[in-house]
Amino acid sequence: MDNSVNVRDFDAAGNGLEDDSAAFQQALDSGSPVVIVPPGLYKIGETLKIGSHTKIAASNEAVIFLADGACTTINDFLLTNKDVQNGNVNIAVEGGVWNGNNKGNLRNPDIFDHKGCTGVMFNFINIKGLTLQNMKLCDAESYFVRVGETDDFCISGIEFEAVHLRPNQDGIHLAGYCSNGTVENISASMYGSTNDDIIALNADDEVNRLVNLGLKRGPITNVIIRNVYAADCHTFIRLLSVDAEISNITIENVSGGCRVFAVNLDAARYCRTPLFKEEDRPDGVGNVHDVTLRNLCVHKTIDSKNPLILAESNLNNFRIENFIRERDKEPENAVPTFSAGKMKPVDLTLDGKIITVGHNERVLDDGDSYNEILFTALKD
């Protein structure tokens, strides 16, 4: 490949025994636009930092894994962009099997620890032009991929696998100020994976929590998500807004099984770190508008108490089309399909039937399929 370098040229051993992080970093710092990672087993003992206008091209037979004890501070990851403060441009990572070795890189159980490692595996913040594609990501201690303040991104062809399940084990976690992106062809065939949201759009979150240190609360706009499959995830899609907007989002072709939610808009009410007091927000919270989800074919894998669709955020022009609940694949349960409430007054249309829902009302429904669910905000 023209203008490329190979990590082997910098004495990467690829035998799984020697620490290859110095060789990788030298290749990344060489000024070459493409860094090739050939087949091998690469132990990484220090955070890899990728700069602007750089692509990692890894063989599908290349396994890159964190060494035991490699992550001890909030700045430690398997891979991050080099200049989080000032920003980077045009970063790409393609191919490879990347393993966070969470068994050897545990977080502090204190969720407000501000010194220990976040458990994040891939960290990308403040980037213009980010591409992640055609790779397998394994055993993150918390988020597999964390993206914030990033414009123009494409995340495609990602397979998640977690042998060791962890709390907060989101697959792709988009935080504030992410815009103009595509997330597609995402899968998690191993039961239990991922152990939190496969895809989270968290415009708001508790940014003082260890897993969120370095992120900002802000809008998430103009994102397309399509072709998402899981055998047994915690939650497929989360849209978390309290004040910051989530808008112009299209989500298509979601299928498989979940233990808790297919779609979660609970505004973090039931998390360990809620973002507001209910009595302080009598008109509800959230600014979610111009969102369409279509072609969801999902089922519960356990008899949990949670509905497949939970809507407890202020919504406008929020539409779900062609939703199917696969009852024949579920254990016997009494879980409702759909629950809505705790929001500003809206007209809720359920397959042509219009119901007005306000903060003090709740609508439950147990249908097996819906051609259309539509939330339309009422004018004050």
Keywords:
380 residues; mainly beta; Pectate Lyase C-like; 2 domains; 5-stranded parallel barrel; 1 helix; elongated
Written description of the protein model:
- With 380 residues, this protein is mainly beta.
- The protein has one helix at 21-28, and strands spanning 4-6, 15-19, 34-37, 40-44, 48-50, 54-58, 62-66, 79-81, 88-94, 97-99, 122-138, 145-161, 172-174, 178-188, 197-202, 220-240, 245-265, 287-300, 309-311, 315-325, 338-341, 346-350, 353-357, 362-365, 369-377.
- It has 1 helix and 25 strands.
- Strands 12-13-15-16-14 form a 5-stranded parallel β-barrel.
- A hairpin with a 2-residue loop joins strand 22 and strand 23.
- The longest helix has 8 residues, at 21-28.
- The protein is elongated.
- It starts with a strand and ends with a strand.
